[in-house]
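Form 7-S
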Amino acid sequence: MMHNPPHPGEVIRALCIEPLGLSITEAAKALGVSRKALSSLLNARSGVTPEMAMRLAIAFDTTPESWLVQQMQYDLWRLSQKASLGSVQRLTPKDVR
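Output:
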């Protein structure tokens, strides 16, 4: 697992939107989403959904899986930093008789 991975919104802003000189409004229109929805993603207030992953893949010639993997890595890292999972018990098969 990556150490402190960036939120996918940061990646979208830095590697996709800014290099193309797009405003958030222009990028949202091209993606077919509201400016509010894209802004929420770029500012890490929401995550990449499967639908958004498909939109990003089409718009930026990437794969939807790449966006979903980034989101999963981000979510798992954050969870590992704050979750108390110490009460979870490992389950093993019982002895066969």
